[in-house]
Amino acid sequence: MRKLSVGAIAVSLLASGAWIGDLAWAAAPVGGQVVSLRRLTQNEYRNSIADIFGPEIVVQGTFEPPQRIGGLQATSTAMLSITPGGFESFTKMADSIAEQVAGQKYRAKLPCAPESAKEPDDACMMQVLNHYGPSLYRRPLTQDELNNGIKLSHDLAQKSGDFYTGLRYGLASLIQSPDFLFRKEIAIPAGDNKYALDAYSRATRLSYLMWDTAPDAELLAAAAHGDLSNAAGLEKQVDRLMSSPRLDVGMRGFFTDMLELDNFDTVSKDGVLYPKWASVIGASAREETLRTVIDTTLHQNGDIRDLMTSRKTILNRNLAAVYQVPFPFEGGDWMPYEFSADSGRSGLVTQVSMLSMFSHPGRSSPTERGVALMDIFLCSPTPPPPADVDFSLINDVNNATLRTTRQRLMAHASNKTCASCHTHSDPIGLTLEGFDTIGGRRTVEDGKPIDVSGTIQGKTFMDGQGLGQYLHDNPRYPQCVARKLDAYALGMNSEQIDASSFKAAYQAFIDSGYRMRTLLKGLVEAPDFFSAPAPKPETPKSKTPTTTAEAATKQATKVAAQ
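The structure assignment produced for this chain is given below.
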């Protein structure tokens, strides 16, 4: 049997005109036009593969990192293409996934078996493509797509003398296609010179927002029947999605992005100064925050502002050591816990996650903490410092005169160039100086009680509890959550979101007592949620491949030769 390489299929696809980064691939149905392409995030990719093929399918490979824009990584998914290196990685992942699906262990789950495993079977391949194709592309496959998949599978099965080899590469061609890798949003006329997303684009937007995965069969069927284009049909599907336990997965995706919990990928601490810190602490801290947020906002349907003030949390043994609280041997890995009134703890702002992510390896950082929390919770980003700013005074921990962090910051901020930014962010960070760089409690610095006061716009508050109450009472906090949720759903820069577009949803959010479920339902059922920009006039297609395509072809050829 002839062994076919990963690169061989990639070269075949590229030679036929299909390459990453070329919008010619992004053909739209008759009457519609592509207005947005959003690259799948790593979690969206993994969740989609697990739901389509089964959780036992292993996804191995490197994903190109997103960028944070307007406080969210989701924003960059509508702006990023795929580099030649990324193309190679997606090609290898697609082949690995397809190889598992076509493998001996998985074959019983396939929708059909060939008449002979040693030769092509176009009828069976048609069943396979019709079974998996709509879930992968999030819409029905066109006849041309079906024909191309069958032909590719037929040719490779014939060359290799193995039906399952042909099936493997037929599936791989779908999995590495931009119709899977990108969430394609199609605009169609909606009357009065307005445009809206087509039914399958609506299903995709709803599913990735609420479940962080591809639409299921019922949602695709609703799209096919036109149910998502009328209020009653849309509400039925929204209620179904929201009543599922999978809503936890979708909202974990949102809060991971909003709270910037991806920062744990790069957090490190000085092991000599902080021996309690280990890699498991970072993973535990991330999980504590997500469990707390999901329990409060979804399971308890609580006031989202309570995330700033509640002393209740959910922790494990690793975190109990950092918090210096008892942890019973019984009760499983995670347990609910409520900090005492004199603990200084107050909601998310004093959890290990927020305190450790935005600190230096060996010491706390009021500025980093203040900058992060102002951006995350109040949508108030701090401008980057000038390129020539001198941080030596702040970093001089051995300064004989300026012994405390507050003293060094105040001296640094006396510089007019630095004052405006530091007065914007430092007050929040300084109230958290009662916690060290890993989030442990401390009360003294240089042998003296730590000053944990902060003043913003004439309001003075003390310690983490005072900060939590300040954020709880600040109307900009729930406004920021609503703005970022809308931006996350739409793939837009939160700083460019017009609050008037979700005015009714936000009022319902307020009237409900700031319940997250009410906000989510209001946003997705708002008249403008599925509106789309007017498509741009199509430009003539160049006969010359783009630079990206040429580079990808060279890379695929190199892989094929190995």
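Interim note for the steering committee: Residues 305 and 473 are 8 Å apart (CA to CA). The radius of gyration is 27 Å.
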